[in-house]
Amino acid sequence: MTxxxxxxxxxxxxxxxxxxxxxxxxxxxxxxxxxxxxxxxSKWFDEYAKVDPSVRFNYQSIGSGGGQKQIxxxxxxxxxxxxxxxxxxxxxxxxxxxxxxxVAGAVVMTYNLPGNPALKLDGETIAxxxxxxxxxxxxxxxxxxxxxxxxxxxEIVVVHRSDGSGTTFIFTDYVSKVSAExxxxxxxxxxxxxxxxxxxxxxxxxxxxxxxTPGAIGYVELIYAxxxxxxxxxxxxxxxxxxxxxxxxxxxxxxxxxxxDDFRFSMTNAPGDSAYPIxxxxxxxxxxxxxxxxxxxxxxxxxxxxxxxxxxMAKDLNxxxxxxxxxxxxxxxxxxIKF
Amino acid sequence: MTTISAVHIPLEERSAQTRMASPxxxxxxxxxxxxxxxxxxxxxxxxxxxxxxxxxxxxxIKKFGFRFLTTSTWDPVAEQFGALPFIxxxxxxxxxxxxxxxxxxIATAAYLxxxxxxxxxxxxxxxIEMLAAIPSVILGLWGIFxxxxxxxxxxxxLLKRFFGWTPFFTGPIYGPSMLAGGIIxxxxxxxxxxxxxxxxxxxxxxxxxxxxxxxxxxxxxATRIAVLSYAKKGLFGAVILGLGRALGETMAxxxxxxxTPQIAASLFQPxxxxxSVLANEFTEATTDMYVQALFExxxxxxxxxxxxxxxxxxxxxxxxxxxxxxxxx
Lengths: 339, 329
What we know:
The structure holds 2 protein chains of 2 kinds.
Chain A: H1 2-25, E1 28-33, H2 38-51, E2 56-60, H3 64-72, E3 78-81, H4 87-91, E4 97-111, E5 120-121, H5 123-131, H6 140-145, E6 157-161, H7 166-178, H8 180-185, E7 198-200, H9 202-212, E8 216-221, H10 222-227, E9 234-236, E10 242-243, H11 247-256, E11 279-287, H12 293-308, E12 320-321, H13 324-334
Parallel strand pairs in A: 1-2, 1-3, 5-9, 6-7, 6-8
Antiparallel strand pairs in A: 3-11, 4-8, 4-11, 4-12, 9-10
Chain B: H1 2-6, H2 11-20, H3 22-56, H4 58-64, H5 67-70, E1 74-75, E2 80-81, H6 84-115, H7 118-133, H8 136-153, H9 155-163, H10 178-202, H11 206-214, H12 219-228, H13 232-248, H14 251-256, H15 274-281, H16 288-328
Antiparallel strand pairs in B: 1-2
């Protein structure tokens, strides 16, 4: 009898503990947006669960457009985007939305040529290729930057992203800066009216199509070119140097890019000898005034952790971390979040 | 229970019993109502979808009007949107798919029902059904890595050599193209057309075949006159089912069609379909007008699907009436 009594108490205690455990695990912070940083964000959420087990993150990588829409509609606690929000979209927000850059990545020019020689390209040449003005690989403009490289008489097959993407935004942002003609004919957006070429869906679609098509050139995120063992070109930067795409050269570009106070910046064609010119950052979007104090507090704790400890994990996943100076500026901005 | 007891009741009383048996009538009514609601739910769903799409695209409809259907610029930067190349691509890729898949499917169905020995029939049927179970994205990957390199290497150059004098097979061969898109759709609609056709041919009464043989018809003649001709209407229905799928096919097509909004006579040129542009651009569309234009694309796709089905019904009716008048004469 005493035994069964004790077991009942035990059972009661277990249930009580179980309930309290689930109750505290109920703190769920929801986010949605960009696909590009998804791998590192999920790594952060995973690691952060060990730091603070009382909070859980749920991130839906539905695309930057969706991230912006959901933060505007306040259906998520934070949004994520590969491009800064436009003034028009920001004006629709019920409160002030802060842009917090987290990491950056490079977009590389990958190609498929016999023997795959190392290529060097400048911005004007890239623009002319994607405008359809340079049609053959042995064009004098390409040859001028690549003395000694064996360039075939092949026709150039341009491959671009068919889906709207932050990668396209970064690429067209760069080309718009270096070519007035591009800016006027196609412009800068997550997808544009392409003057020429075929469209592949996703980074894997573009890298697949470039790999399959002799004479093709396309743009993909650095990691896809590395993983698929595809060649990628060094690109001439604003300082006139040919920069090799790497995490270091992207961080260098972040260091020299002109970053305004609201953190809505473009880092393409950044000055500096070692800066790689076709690169972009990705942002978390949060309201300056948090509605739910408990959630807001936890979110700030996480953001601070991400911008310090989290940054250290970036390189392993092929993202370029923020330079120290930018990191400090973002941390200061996080302190301004009210709850 | 009531029926068992009813057996022992004299006739006059039994009629009273039937009058009293209202519970079963209530069941009938309830059943009728239930099925009616279910059937109406489908109609309501279509109307709701249509209304939602119309609502979501009202700004774009107001801004572009009829031009949306007749212009070919798709420029998210300048916010100029015209859907013509997508409409063209959807119709042409589906047409190519039908041209390839219909003869193949009907021939397969005819072989399976009329000619194939029993031991071959079941494995073949299972294989065809398995083809229908392959996820679209897998077919698309297969398209990129296996089909397109092969097409570019052998069939496309051959087509260019022998039919290069027509406008359809000219120009450079990239691989991803309208033709590749059509071929992938053909693979995807083959199973559905085949299995529906097979069911239809199976339902042709044996009397038909026996009558033809009795008149001295050969096997081919019996199949042609007694079976295929008899089942014409049903086979047409099978084709329409396939077409419905072809129009809305998205993932696999997106991966091989090249995604370029242009209207080119050559089938070697890349194209674009309505479903593909939706799948490609919806997630990253940030401005209002852009999203609205994409909604309108969805609305146009729904419209085309309904229109094509209506046209098919009309065609079916003309087939029926002409054959009926012929029979009278």
